[in-house]
Amino acid sequence: MAVAPQERVLQAFGEAVGTLLDDFDLIDALHRLCARGVELLDVTAVGIMLADPYGDLQVLAVSDERTRLLELFALQGDDGPCADAHRSAEPRVNVDLATAVPRPAFAARARKAGYTTAHALPLRLRRRSIGAVGLLHVGPHTLGPAEVRLGQTLADVATIAVLQQHTVERGNVERAQVQAALVSRTVIEQAKGVLAEHWTTGVDEAFDVLRGYARTHDERLADLARKVIDGTLDPAALRPAV
User: For the whole prediction, is pTM greater than 0.90?
Assistant: First the structure.
C-alpha cells in the first residue's frame, strides 16, 4: 500500500527529531535527511553544505556518496545556487541550468552530469545563513510554494542538528559546533580513501560499508573513521564475511 504524502512527511520528521533527542551521529543523521529530501521533494539528489569559519561552503552530506556528485556540490562553495542562497539567506529555486548564465562553471558541470534543474535553501540561523541545502534534478522540475516550505523545513532541521551536536561554553557555541562538523566530514573522507585503496574499490562502496558498520555497532562515523586512519581497526573487520 502506498504511503500518503502527509504520512511520509511525518515519518521523515519523526526520524529527524528522534536523532536529536539523544546522543547522535551528525553526519549519519544529515545523510538520512538528504535521502528523505530526495523522496519528499521528488528530486534526484540532495546535498547539505555548511559554511566554514572563513565563510566558504563545505559539503557535509549528500544523498549519494558518489565522488562525481560530491565534487559537483563542492563546486557550489563559491559558484551556484547554494552559494547564492547562503549569501542572501533566501531560497533560490527553479533554476534552469541551461540558462544559468551568472553561474556558468557550476551550470556547465551540472549539465554535463545530466542535471537540468537546481534549487537551494539556506540553513537559517536567526536572520542569516550558516550554509545551504542543494537539490538537483535530471529533468524539468518546479518547486511550488508548498514544496519550498517543506524544503526549507528540512533545511531548518539540518541547522538544528548542526547546532545540537555539542554543548560548549556559551558565546562560542556556533563556531565550535560548525568546526567540529567540518572536521568530522574531513576525517570520514580520509577514511573512505584509505578503505577504497585497501579494497581496490570505489569510495561510494567504502562509505556504505563504513556507515553500515557504524550503525550496526552503534559507533559514530567520525570515531570509526579515525580508527581506520590511525590503524587501530583492521579494514577486514569492517566487511562482513562472504
Answer: no
